[in-house]
Amino acid sequence: MNLREQIEKEITEKVMTKLASERIELGIIQDLQADIKEGIEAGKKMKDAQQSAMKIQESLIGIAEKYNKLVKEVNREAATVETRQNTLKANFNIASKKYEKTLKAALDLGIDMPKNIQQQFKELEEYHRLTNNMPKKLPRYEQINY
């Protein structure tokens, strides 16, 4: 091999080595760019998911507030029903005794019990049956803590 060929060979080897080195550096940069792009996409998806979760959370808070309001109302109504049941039972017991006494007195005197009194007492008896078929204590509900 002559000097010229040897010089060409050395130059070619150096150029090829430099090109290989640049290809490696270019590959590293391309890998870095791909990793950065993938990270940015993950960040965008995370941001979208976070915004969606916040909207859902706001909706849940609104639902919980409405639920808690309804719980207060139903618990208050249950207490009112129980109070009215007790009042009805007490009134029925008193009215029933008075009705029986009045009915006996009317029969002793040979007169009929007034129709409106009979109808009203039947209505009272219906309510009394209704309350006897109801639970003594209505369920109470717990509020949601959020």
- What is the overall silhouette? rod-shaped
Low-confidence segments, ≥5 residues, pLDDT <50?
Answer: none
* Total number of strands: 0
Order of helices and strands: HH
Number of helices: 2
What is this structure, in a nutshell?
The chain is mainly α and 146 residues long. It has helices at 3-109, 115-133.
Protein architecture, described:
The chain is an all-alpha fold and 146 residues long. It has one domain. Helix content is 86%, strand content 0%. The longest helix has 107 residues, at 3-109. The two termini are 87 Å apart.
Write the SSE topology:
Blueprint: H1 3-109, H2 115-133
Helix pairs in contact: 1-2
Key attributes of the depicted protein:
146 residues, mainly alpha, 2 helices, rod-shaped
